[in-house]
Structures are given as C-alpha cells and as structure tokens.
Amino acid sequence: MQLEILTPEHKVFSGEVYGILLPGTEGAFEILDKHAPMIASLGKGKMKVLKDKTHTETYEISGGFIEMLNNKASVLIEDATALD
C-alpha cells in the first residue's frame, strides 16, 4: 500500500509499505495492505512503518489522524521523531 506521513512543516515518509502499527487514542492498532477505508485519531506514542517483512522504521509521534482510502494511508501528525 502507499503511505504518506505528513506534519505541518514537512513530509516525513512517502512510499510503498507492507503495513503500519499506530498508537490510536483508544489503543494501538495495525493497518495492512488492502485495509478497508477508515479514519481514526492518533495519540502520543510509537508508530512503526513495516516496509517489508524484515525492514521497519519507528517514529515517536505526538498525535494526529490517519485516513485509509483506496489502499493509500495518509497519516497527518503534529510532529514525528525517527527512532531508528
């Protein structure tokens, strides 16, 4: 699936991924390839980008939203710090 991670200042990530693990406001959740359309709010915590079965990138985020539509995930967050 296509993933874009954006802050108000810059684009954090853009590319093809296998899935993402996200800190939702009601608890952590995972989105994989071909997930159903959805919008969810994100809380403060760690977001893990699953590039493939063996490569990941981890970010500390401070909250925001995710929209999943037509196999494209758009993550709109206040701030992100790479942890890898």
Walkthrough of the structure:
With 84 residues, this protein is mostly beta strands. The chain has one domain (2-82): F0F1 ATP synthase delta/epsilon subunit, N-terminal (ATP Synthase, domain 1), CATH 2.60.15. It contains no helices and eight strands. The protein is globular and about 25 Å long.
Provide keyphrases for this structure.
84 residues, mainly beta, ATP Synthase, domain 1, eight-stranded mixed sheet, 8 strands, globular
- The count of DSSP E runs of length 2 or more, i.e. the number of strands, is 8
Q: Structural class, from helix and strand content?
A: mainly beta
Low-confidence stretches: none
Mean pLDDT: 95
The biggest sheet, with number of strands, parallel, antiparallel or mixed sense and barrel status, is: 8 strands, mixed
Helix content: under 10%
Can you tell me the CATH superfamily? F0F1 ATP synthase delta/epsilon subunit, N-terminal
CATH-derived architecture: Sandwich
- What distance lies between the first and last C-alpha atoms, to the nearest angstrom? 22 Å
- Give Rg in angstroms: 11 Å
CATH C-level class: Mainly Beta
Overall spatial form: globular
